[in-house]
Design goal:
The protein is of the alpha/beta class. It has 14 helices and 24 strands.
């Protein structure tokens, strides 16, 4: 397994290009199952998760072409030859569950492995299943697989999510586009990735209103057609790299960055004393003076503070002036970066979903272990500002969600390199 080595203490400058959103692409790709015509996704990120999703779709009979070094994905499903998504692929990537709604809507049947949990939590899919049942699907669970059928097709209905779920909103929204009649989704997720999915589905001929609000209304249509859609900018990659100059010092321009995608996060960064300004090409983040101010963070569904930026924010707050309290309200176990940061000298007290961080002057580099995607990158960020060398192991987590992270940071002056695992 590769490692990434960071020698801390270098101020950053220059610019970082922000790629298309992993979490948008992972729902846009299954959405192409809804039509028998080609759908072209541009600005696609070059990530292992995208390659995994392509492999899954190909196993279902999708013809997938990856052009321009993976930045353009052309997906054509003349017909779905295989309606079974196998456990060996689904267990590697939970977003695989998002093929369920589209296959059911298109052909009236699907067999999809339950994803199982992951490092950050049990992450059940009960809302996905309840929502599809509300559209008339018959579901049976056996041997770890969901057997779904809708022999007379899906029927529109009103469904209220008991709590916000991004994936369940995406799955039901996709299914509803081909259901007979009107579907109203209440307490729907409002993430920019939902808006991006709806924009693509509308380009494919779907009738959708209200995406980005808590109530989404869909008028079912008989069929969808091909389209070309640019994947929205990745707000989590953006927020992650905004923290690089905040932690290391200096000033970096995030090319393609959009303030409207990271409002709550940018406001919190401003509160710490970090300057975020809009430029002609994106966003510029600078840290002029010394230590940042301590702040409190509570993660929430969009437009609140994103749970996917909690670990990275904690890396900044480890050296803030004062004590910060971070509440993780989306996932039950998303503080695994804390013990690793403590190996670097951070002072963090974790009780259930609350982490109390008492800022120290500076962290010290150390060998640390990555446990999940966002925890991995928070350790790299911490290393940028730490004294000495930080070695982040198990970086395969990182490659799932970040394109060539060492290249992007090295281009801004960071002393960072990837060491290939021997053998
Ligand atoms: C999406 O996961 C993202 N993944 C996650 O990003 C992100 O953290 C999450 O949304 C929240 O924003 C993708 O888009 C591929 P949820 P998802 O359904 O859809 C519980 C990353 O780092 N829940 O909004 O799985 C669930 O356990 C990843 O890029 C149920 O109980 O998240 C969680 O506690 C990590 N039953 C909460 O709801 C369900 O049926 C929110 O989950 C569904 C979810």
């Amino acid at each position: 397994m590769d490692s990434i080595i960071v020698e801390g203490g270098r101020e950053l400058g220059g610019s970082i290009p922000i790629a298309g959103a992993k979490n948008a692409c992972l729902t846009l790709m299954p959405a192409t199952l809804l039509t028998n015509e080609p759908v072209t996704l541009t600005n696609a990120p070059r990530l292992s998760d995208i390659r995994t999703m392509r492999t899954l779709l190909e196993s279902l009979g999708v013809e997938a072409a990856s052009l321009q070094d993976g930045q353009v994905q052309v997906l054509s499903t003349r017909e779905i030859g295989n309606h079974r998504a196998d456990y060996d692929i689904v267990r590697k990537m939970r977003a695989s569950i998002l093929v369920l709604g589209p296959m059911l809507a298109r052909d009236g049947h699907a067999v999809v492995s339950l994803p199982g949990g992951c490092a950050i939590g049990a992450r059940p899919v009960d809302l996905h299943l309840k929502g599809l049942e509300a559209l008339g699907a018959k579901l049976e669970l056996s041997e770890g697989y969901v057997h779904a059928s809708a022999p007379t097709g899906l029927k529109g209905s009103v469904f209220e999510f008991p709590f916000v779920s991004v994936g369940a909103t995406e799955n039901i929204l996709m299914a509803a586009t081909l259901a007979k009649g009107t579907t109203v989704l209440k307490n729907a997720a409002r993430e920019p990735e939902i808006v991006d999915l709806a924009t693509c589905l509308i380009a494919m001929g779907a009738h959708i209103d209200g995406a980005g609000t808590s109530t989404i209304t869909v008028e079912g249509v008989d069929r969808l057609h091909g389209a070309t859609h640019p994947v929205v900018t990745d707000r989590i990659e953006l927020g992650t790299y905004m923290l690089a100059p905040a932690i290391a010092g200096g000033s970096v321009e995030l090319l393609g960055g959009r303030l409207d995608l990271v409002e709550a996060f940018a406001a919190k960064l401003n509160e710490t004393g970090i300057e975020v300004e809009e430029t002609a090409n994106g966003l510029r983040v600078s840290r002029k003076n010394g230590r940042v101010n301590a702040v409190n963070v509570i993660t929430a569904p969009h437009p609140g503070f994103p749970t996917d930026l909690q670990a990275q924010m904690m890396a900044l707050l480890c050296t803030a002036n004062g004590t910060s309290v971070l509440e993780e309200r989306i996932f039950e176990n998303r503080f695994m970066h804390a013990p690793e940061l403590m190996r670097m000298g951070a002072r963090i007290d974790v009780h259930g979903g609350t982490a109390t961080v008492t800022g120290v002057e500076r962290l010290k580099g150390a060998p640390v272990m990555a446990t999940d995607l966002r925890a991995s990158v928070s350790l790299i960020l911490a290393g940028l500002g730490a004294e000495g060398e930080t070695v982040v192991n198990r970086v395969y987590h990182l490659d799932r969600g970040y394109e060539r992270v060492e290249e992007k940071l090295r281009a801004c002056g960071a002393d960072i390199k990837r060491v290939k695992a021997d053998g």
